[in-house]
Amino acid sequence: MPKLSDFELRTMPGLWRWAENAPRRMAFRAGDRAEAETWQAALREEIVRLLGGFPVERCDLDPHTIERVEGPDLTRETLVIQTQPGEYMPVHVLIPRGGSAPWRRVIAVHGHGTGGARLLTGEPVDPVEAGLIDELNYDYARQMARRGFVVFVPVLRALGDRMEDSPLRDAVEPAWQSSCHVAGMSALLCGKTLIGLRAWDMLRLVDYMETRPEPAAPGLACAGLSGGGTVTLFATALEPRITCAVISGYLNTFRDSIMAVRHCACNYIPGILNVADMADIAGLIAPRPVFVESGERDPIFPSEATRRALDDLRRVYRVFGAEDRVASHFFPGAHEWGGAPAIDWLEGQFAPPPGR
After folding, report:
1. What is the pLDDT of residue 171?
2. Cis bond before residue 63 (omega within 30° of 0)
3. How does DSSP classify residue 136?
């Protein structure tokens, strides 16, 4: 008589097999630039649809300044903007003291964790947050500002200051607390995705940045680690006003990352593998410059799969005659910000600031 153990009772092995043979009907197959641009337009439209669509009309930004703090080397402004009617996003703006216009601008996007954008600006409120900054090299917004960039640090939905009230918060250790699960699952009930809502917020941030009074140098960068890398990828793929991107601890394959270990609910897009993989979505950035970094010991976005995704991404850029605009950095760390090479690369995407 057979035993239960003689049979495959789990669901994931079947889904993994399906993923390995998924149709990816809009994967990159273009043979020349004209075909590639047609492919980009079609895939961009389909990705927006899968994300839940974007509003047809843009509401008033209704910006309000919350505070302005003068530090020894940086000034931090905190403000809110309205991204959808009645929904506001906090944004921290780091401005180097002693610098001068025109300013080089970067959007620095945080990932998971209770501290949210506060960690990127280097302002921990307790030893736990200070330890996270040290462990993950997480204050990269402050690092960029100290290199002379004006850095815009938005607070992502369901994280940091935008977490839902208890009991809607995820039951994880305090340092990594979020409310992505209830927000992400509820978004799916409404035909939306949390990635889509966050990407839309980034588009509205770019709208706001265009209203700022300080003179800006040509170009706009976006950079982020982990969940911030997710938002950086999708926002840059869908927003041509972002001219270059640093994707840290994210670019991979859906099969080797999102489907391989337990991930936050905010990572899931219904039906995405019917259409494309991560490298195809990153291909929507082409021919704009992109920098990808990965820790060799990253347990949730494995570096070997990042290398394969980079090979696929370079095929897209090759058709555009721009393969040299794909840069990468693999370092001996884990799931963390790699450090100076990414910021060095960012500096190379802008004209030297005055005085250099």
Report:
1. 66
2. no
3. H
Residue-level pLDDT at 98 = 82
Q: What is the mean pLDDT of residues 187-213?
A: 97
**What is the three-state SS of 56-116?**
CCCCCCCCEEEEEEECCCEEEEEEEEEEECCEEEEEEEEEECCCCCCEEEEEEECCCCCCC
pLDDT of 53 over the 90 cut: yes
Q: Which two tokens stand for residue 266?
A: 């905010």
Give the closest residue to 60 by CA, choosing from 26, 85, 30.
85
Confidence label for 166 from pLDDT (cuts 50, 70 and 90): confident
- Tell which residue, 260, 248, 250, 323, has the closest CA to residue 289: 323
Describe the strand order of the beta sheet including 244-248 as a list of residue ranges. 64-70, 74-84, 87-96, 149-154, 104-109, 221-225, 244-248, 290-295, 326-331
List Cβ neighbours of 322 (8 Å cut-off, separation of 6 or more). 286, 287
DSSP state of 219: -
Q: Please give the Cα distance from 99 to 355 (Å, whole number).
A: 9
Instruction: Tell me the helix, strand and coil percentages in the chain, rounded to 5.
Output: 40, 20, 45
The residues with which 65 forms a beta bridge, in sequence order, are: 79
Which one-letter DSSP state was computed for residue 265?
G
Label residue 330 exposed, middle or buried (CB < 10 Å: 0-12, 13-18, 19+). Answer: middle
Exposed / middle / buried, residue 291 (Cβ in 10 Å: 0-12, 13-18, 19+): buried
CA-CA distance, 239 to 242, in Å (whole number)? 6
